[in-house]
Amino acid sequence: MRRNILDSEYTVCHYTTVIQWKMLKYSLNLTGIRVTKVAMGDSSKSTSTSRSDRSTHAAKPTFAMSSDNVSISTDFSPELRGRPKAVAKVLRDSKEEPQLLPKESVQDMAKDVTYICPYIGALRGTLTVTNYRLFFKCMDREPAFVLDLPLGVVSRVEKIGGASSRGEVSYGLACKDIRNLRFAHKQMEDSLRKSIFEILMKCAFPVSNGLTIFAFEYGQVYPENGWKVYDAQAEYKRQGLPNESWRITKVNDHYELCDTYPSTLVVPVNIPDEELKRVAAFRAKGRIPVLSWIHPESQATVIRCSQPMVGVNGKRSKDDEKYLQTIMDANAQSHKLFIFDARPSVNAAANKMKGGGYESEDAYQNAELVFLDIHNIHVMRESLRKLKEVVYPNIEESHWFSNLESTHWLEHIKLILAGALRIADKVESGKTSVVVHCSDGWDRTAQLASLAMVMLDGHYRTIRGFQVLLEKEWLSFGHRFQLRIGHGDKNHTDADRSPVFLQFIDCVWQMTRQFPAAFEFNEYFLITILDHLYSCLFGTFMCNSEQQRVKEELPKKTVSLWAYINSQPEEFTNPLYVNYSNHVLFPVVSMRHLELWVGYYIRWNPRMRPQEPVHQRYKELLAKRAELQKRVEELQREVTNRSASSSSERAGSPTRSITPVQTFV
Amino acid sequence: MFDGRVLLKQVILLFWPLISTWVQGAEKIDSCQLQVLEMLSSLGSAGGKSAKPSFVSYVTPEEIKSEKEPSRKEKHPDLLPGEVVFCSASTVLKYTQDDLSQRGVFGVLLCTNFRVSFVSDEEPTEEMLFKNKLYGENDIPLSCVDNIYGDKRKLITGGLVKNKYPSKMIIHCKDLRVFQFSLSFSKEEDAKKIFQGIVHHCLEPKSLRCLFAFSYCENTSYPGSYTVENTSKKQTVMFDSVEDWTQDMKRTKGNCRVVSENSNFELSPKMLTAVAHNHLYSVKTEDLSDTLPTVQDILLSYNKFKQFFLIDNTTEFWMSDMKWFSSLDNCGWLDIIRQCLQKAVEVVESLEKENTNVLIMEEGGSDLCCVVSSLVQLMLDPYYRTLLGFQSLVQKEWVAGGHAFLDRSNHLHLKDKVESPVFLLFLECVWQLQQQHGPAFQFSETYLTVLSDSVHVPVFTTFLFNNDGHRDSLLRAESPHTQRSPLNCPTVWDWSVQFDCKAQDLFTNPLYTEKPKQDTSVRKSYRPRHLRQLSLPSSAFKTPPKKGFFKDEADNLKKILGVKRLSRWMLSPSSDSPQTSSSVREFYEAWQTKPLDYHGLLLPCLDGPSIRVWMQRYLRWIHDVQILGGGPVAMLSKVSEILGEVQELQRQLDRHGCTLTSNHKGARPRAKTAAAVIAARSSVRLSSSFPFVTSRNWAFKPAIPTSLLQSLMVTGMPGNLADREDDGGPESLV
Q1: Given CB atoms, is B724 within the 8 Å cutoff of chain A?
Q2: What is the DSSP letter of B398?
Q3: A401 vs B516: CB contact, 8 Å cut-off?
Q4: With an 8 Å Cβ cutoff, are A578 and B704 in contact?
Q5: What is the pLDDT of residue A637?
Q6: A400 is in an annotated binding site
Q7: pTM here?
Q8: Which of A346, A425, B142, B693 lies at a CB distance of 3.0 to 4.6 Å from B689, suitable for a disulfide?
Q9: What SS3 state is found at A173?
């Protein structure tokens, strides 16, 4: 039974993606509008063709559905992308409530709510709050206006002022995805009845209110178990590990050596587990230097760890020094070791006051210490806040570049990329092993190590390889997603929140801009990851460490984002991908080549959406090629089957040959 | 002679889809006549090839020849016809641009009547794919020299360099290349001569006759004018004959009368659907002088802007990188581009939405008028987005339209001329449109870049004169066979003068959406033919321009209407809006809601992030910002590969269709695919400055910023966030 549903579901997907593009095309100018009118004919057709029983269907995740536009900035507003099926449903019965996901339930519904859209103006409609989403629909407009966002995106709900003269109360929602929403509705006459926004406040922050995050309820079944995408052993094996210099240790199997590290670690062969423990004592939070990546030819390695506990008195650890020496010795090509401290030197020095610090070159012979001047999570959070001010809701035309510069956002991006570039350069050109750390080794270190790996290893530039990279360097090595994102937590001023992961994805995007053919995935892939970073629909970005994930039984209780993504890889594929295999990418980190990711940060502004995504042309071209290929193959089959006879009219006559510039379909 | 009212109509006219603006400034005509006189007088007094009164060569060609040793002679570049070496110096060191370590290559530095040329002592390296036939990568056409700096980056101005020469000479080119030469290894005499020669020929005033074009054309058997030679081919409409204008009007269904009595440079097509019978009430005038920056503003802004790209020092480059965005804002160049585009959108709005004719005016009428009117046509008419259409547009609005190319590029270094990169500004605007709506344009970004470079190659008639009359009289006067046809100079549109066919392939956009075929045939019938061009009686279109002809008309109009901003008064009394931008905004948004048609109206998005820097043009020579293995070329090669495959498949289908019985197994699609894949993979070895820089400079080394900002950002950081700990507990709020 389940199987059947899935099968037919795919049929639906197939048809709907075709029409989705058309919908998009017509809806671009109106923000947040899922165009229903245009889609009507097509989608009803598609539903009838697909012969599926809609009511038994599990709907797909909100943002997640389709839209076949490949990797273009813009037009990825989840609202626009809509769920074709939900659209069809809504169309059929003009319902004012959303198509629900499995286990999703309506918590409250209010009519005559006004959504004050910064681009269109006030819209009156029905607001629905479920345990997963906020859904607003205004039927007055043609086509109907729909706002559909997961509650996980909401970072704060605030009542703005008291009742106005017209007896309306106003609420503001600040969102994690660079937008703010504003609603108003009539003062409740029955003062005992709760406003829908009070319900919203409860549902949007399940962690603070003792409720369950929706990811634990969502029970969609996908053909692949996304939790199996990353297998540490397999990934190290791909890198050629273990080898004569490096071994895989089980010392952290029960997270006893370090509770924020993964259970599988790669360390030098001749350092026994006992010594590892002594090294752990000298590194912050026990995060010892371990191998992240090894160069297939030179054996130069990328090592990550946390800061050494040097302190004001300049404490030393013979074990740690020996350990780093061993790491250097494991690479015969170089007699040097580079230690990249991600922090500005001032901050690194200040850390000595709290027992931390950095490796002194006296203690670590043959090691060269380089500071990369990347600022801390608080500076980054502040920078993003400023950026939001500059880009949402409207862009001030006259001083755009100065305003952008004043946010320092791209400066931070530049520094992170520059740091990763220096690491990649040392490993590739210098054939030297590098050690990367910041204070705890889970924020800036994760950014730098994973970016350097994207530059160095083409595998991480594929769709699956990138998933492995995230699972490995970010999730298993304990980037504290729960704290940095604050899933379901109402405490929006929490100083632990920071857009560290967003910055990393931004850096990857900058690289895809510079190397448009080197990545298998498209922009939509990156945006989808970011959308589900907040959505709380998938378990992938829950918790702070591998240990916690195991403890919470996330793989058992939740669905992985990769299950969804890998169920329709064509959506996320860059049509221009050329497999450069072992080619190393060195991006240019000059400001002249960095740009603001308009398709993500300014995607809510309808003016900034192109009418036709760039890659549409490429897709058409590829479709043309596929069609011709098919025809050629058909013909060849026909020829072999048929005996030599007269010519066939089926094949195109010479006059039909197309010119290279004729890319219309 | 003319009925005033008729003329008035002709001038006001009418502009969809051709906006012709002919408000000719009297002072311009004066100046061009003066130049003609000057020319004539100079010709009278000097005979032969060598010196003219206004020009003294420091070294005569004869001197050089006698001085030269045979071995050195081989070091010469291949001289063009009519090219003469003025002076040269050996053992000049040319610094490698990307290197601070003062390394370089030794060679001979020459100055000819066409270029400054450096010939390396080393063996010539691999041939470039994208080689310009007229000048190589180490050649600088004299008109392309922008500024010369001496020791300590002191700006050299002409005239003051007697007996002195700097040990290091930096040349900034108008195409943004930077050359650094050390003269300290050369013989003192040679060094002095070459320095003075270069300064003299590149910076000091000279007469038009000294421009290389004249000596080049006299010495080439250039096969007649472009249009005549290629009558059979599809070609650029030159708009130098009544036919051209008539045909173009036919193409656009205009119903205006072509006024040929006056001269060859005006006409007025009219929109078929024009509403008004009374022109006066349907015309909106746009006085660009009121709303757009002046040519001086444009020059000032561009001079600031270009400094960001004239890089002769890596450290400085990375220093300036930090303030890149605010510097961009401060120089205002992108803002000027935005204003021009916005003005064009406003005009389009009037034409499209209000069905109003628009008269674009400015003093002189041949600078921003050209920019705006050609942009409007580009937005409205898909024909102008084809390669030939675009060239015709430039020919019509700029060359025939009387843009003073000679004065604006100031090839002659005359003090009293207002130099200004107005044409470049136009190309910038076109580039913005192109990068926003790629598939709508048949030509590529590379084409625009090359076109912008060609302005500084003093060979093409297209960019050498101030207007058609100027050109005709000069070419006639210069012709060696005075009684016969005028001197034949190539136009820039004859691209084979500069590039071979393969290189020219890069001018087209592989993703261009061609108009569906049925329409193409219709279009063809409108395409102008050039049959009788030369057989026209010359009196019909070769009479010299009348002084102030159009100026009078404009004055007339102004008088009649009696107000400066006619639009307000005439259009609708209520639209008393200085907030034009908001109406443009709405117009854009309304257009955006409609499905995109690459063969219909195109509007640019003008919001902050949408106006960008033309990377290819400005960053191509800067080593540190070359993306190795990336950039647009990576996409281009993949697209070409797919296109190749599509074509191959199509061929196979055709073959199968025709000869099903023949050996079909010979060519499988795979075989071709494999070859194409290699081509795409080789893009790994190309860089973002393709095709302008060879891959020979390929060094698999990233550019590491030399100065990371240390404490720059910490200043002005609220609450000293930078000092806080990563883990945001209260204890960390130090």
Answers
A1: yes
A2: I
A3: no
A4: no
A5: 82
A6: no
A7: 0.82
A8: B693
A9: strand
Q: Is residue A135 predicted with pLDDT exceeding 70? A: yes
Least Cα separation, residue B285 to chain A (angstroms): 26
* Single-letter amino acid, residue A118: P
Is the pLDDT reported for residue B84 higher than 80?
A: yes
Q: Which amino acid is at B209?
A: R
Cα–Cα distance, B151 to B183 (Å, whole number): 11
The answer to whether B512 contacts A661, with C-beta atoms less than 8 Å apart, is yes
Alpha-helix residue ranges (DSSP H) falling in B178-313:
188-203, 212-219, 226-229, 242-251, 279-282, 288-291, 295-307
Residue A151 DSSP label: G
**pLDDT by residue (tens digit) across B305-363?**
999 999 877 788 888 888 899 999 999 999 999 999 999 998 888 888 777 777 777 77
> What is the rounded average pLDDT of the residues A335-346?
95
Q: What is the pLDDT of residues B15-26, one digit of tens each?
A: 333 333 333 333
- What is the rounded CA–CA span in Å between residue A337 and residue A98? 57
Cα angle B205, B208, B210; round to 5: 80
DSSP type of residue A558: S
Closest Cα in chain A, distance from residue B313 (Å)? 15
What does the H/E/C string look like for A624-646? HHHHHHHHHHHHHHHHHHCCCCC
In this complex, is the C-beta atom of B508 within 8 Å of any C-beta atom belonging to chain A?
yes
Look up the ipTM and state it.
0.82
Q: Which two tokens stand for residue A384?
A: 């993003």
B14-28 burial, b for 16+ CB within 10 Å, e for fewer? bbbbbbbbbbbbeeb
Q: What pLDDT is recorded for position A45?
A: 37
Tens of pLDDT, residues B263-316: 333 333 322 222 222 333 456 677 777 788 999 999 999 999 999 999 877 788
Measure the CA–CA gap between A439 and A343, rounded to whole angstroms.
8
Per-residue pLDDT band for A146 (boundaries 50, 70, 90) equals very high
DSSP A51-63: T--GGGPPPPPTT
pLDDT above 70 (res A76)? no
Return the residue matching tokens 């581009």.
B337
pLDDT per position as a tens digit, A101-132:
989 999 999 988 999 999 989 999 999 999 99
3-state SS, one letter per residue, for B625-672 = HCCECCCHHHHHHHHHHHHHHHHHHHHHHHHHHHCCCCCCCCCCHHHH
What residue type is B565 in one-letter code?
A: R
Specify whether A13 is catalytic: no
H or E element, residue A338: strand A337-341
**Closest CB to A408 among B626, B665, B713:** B713
Alpha-carbon gap, residue B574 to B319, rounded angstroms: 51
- pLDDT value of residue A593: 93
Q: CB–CB of B660 and A659 under 8 A?
A: no
The long-range contacts involving A334-337, CB below 8 angstroms and separated by at least 24 positions, are: A334/A300, A334/A430, A334/A431, A334/A432, A334/A433, A335/A366, A336/A366, A336/A367, A336/A368, A336/A430, A336/A432, A337/A364, A337/A366, A337/A367, A337/A368, A337/A432, A337/A433, A337/A434, A337/A435
CB atoms closer than 10 angstroms to residue B516: 10
Q: Per DSSP, what are the bridge partners of residue A283?
A: A308
In 3-state terms, what secondary structure has residue B561?
Answer: helix
The answer to whether residues B369 and B362 touch, using CB atoms and an 8 Å cutoff, is yes
- Write a three-state SS string for A410-456: HHHHHHHHHHHHHHHHHHHCCCCEEEEECCCCCCHHHHHHHHHHHHH
pLDDT of residue A39: 34
Q: Choose the mutation target among B725, B731, B733 for the interface with A, i.e. most A CBs under 10 Å.
A: B725
Q: Do A454 and A322 contact (CB within 8 A), yes or no? A: no
Residue from A406, A628, A643 to probe the interface with B (highest B Cβ count within 10 Å) = A628
- Our CA-based measurement puts residue A214 at a distance from the nearest CA of chain B, in whole angstroms, of 27
A573 residue type, one letter? T
Kindly report whether the peptide bond that precedes residue A393 is cis, defined as omega within 30 degrees of 0.
yes
